[in-house]
Structure formats: C-alpha cells, structure tokens
Amino acid sequence: MASLATEEARWRETAKRISPLAIVDLITRQSVIARLRVSTKADALAELAKKSAELIRAPDRPILDALLARERLGSTGIGGGVAVPHAKLPGLMTPVGVFARLEKPIDFQSVDGRPVDLVFTVLTPEFCGGEHLKALAAVSRVLRDPEMSGKLRRADDEQALYVLLAHRISRGLSLTI
Question: In the annotation, is 132 catalytic?
Fold first, then answer.
C-alpha cells in the first residue's frame, strides 16, 4: 500500500490536471437514483455505498465504513427532508457524488427531526481539504432550496432528476473546487 505522502502527492498531481472542477461534475446520469427503496438510514447508506462503488469500481465496504464513521460523529441530515452523507476516502482520485430520491421518507436523525427523502452522497479524496467543505456547502444550498427540492420530489425519473440538478447547479450555484 502506498504511503500517505505518496497518496497525497498523487492526489495533488491529479487535482492539477482536473482543476477547476465544478460541482456538477460530481454526478452523472448513472449516479442518480429516482426511487431508492429503503426503510432505514443504515439501508440507505449501504445502497449509496454500493452505487458509489459501482461508479468508482471499488469495493463498497470501505465506502460504507467511511459513511458510517461520519454518521457516528453526528447526523448528516441537514433538515428540510435532505441528507448529505459524506466522507473522504483514501485512494480516491476525484470527487464523486450519488443523488437518490427515496420512495418513502426515512428517519435520518436530522437536525429538524423531519424524515429524509432526498440524499446526496459526496465522496472526496482523502487530501481534498477545504474543497470537501465547499462541495458540501454548495450541494446543501441546492437541495435546501424549497423550489428545487419540490421539483426534485416531483421529477419522474433519473433523467429528469439529473437535468434538474445539472441545470440548477450550473446556474449560479456552481463552485470550482
């Protein structure tokens, strides 16, 4: 296994090649789930870890472990029916996101006590630093916008959700990280 210094150097070199990165680059049509059927927070995180693993072609267990470790620090349910589970992952070379609209809202121990039905998972390289927080803030602003969250809740399928997210994020809420 590469040393932390080697991983950090590799990330920094990759970041130079891919910068600037817009938040819209976190998701693709393949990273959007229109009707995720889960009944618990743990089930939701497990499914999001599986989807993330498919996208980055990696095992899902380390992703799930990282998401669960972050949740133990405090819920990522930010209120308004929205959660933004996130983690930094060793070996990840570029940030990745997965958006899911849940079929039925679930308890996520959110700050406002409301159940969650919109979830945007953000995974960043271990050495991403402040960019990780900037990405979370931008995603949170988009999802907590009442007009946007309403549109996401009414969208028919993955394509419609992706278009909404890509359009909204690219119009005034994009962020270069």
Answer: no
- Give the pLDDT band (50/70/90) at residue 169: low
From the candidates 41, 86, 101, 168, which is the catalytic residue?
Answer: 86
Whole-prediction pTM value? 0.83
* Strand ranges in the chain using DSSP code E only, listed in sequence order: 32-36, 77-79, 82-83, 86-89, 96-106, 116-125
| C-beta atoms surrounding 69 within 10 Å | 10
Print the domain residue range for 146: 26-170
Residue 35 has pLDDT above 70, yes or no: yes
Q: Is residue 7 part of a domain?
A: no
Are 124 and 88 a contacting pair, CB within 8 Å?
Answer: yes
Task: CATH number of the domain at 133, please.
Answer: 3.40.930.10
Residue 177 falls inside a structural domain: no
Instruction: Summarize pLDDT for 126-146 with one digit per residue, the tens.
Output: 887 777 788 888 888 889 999
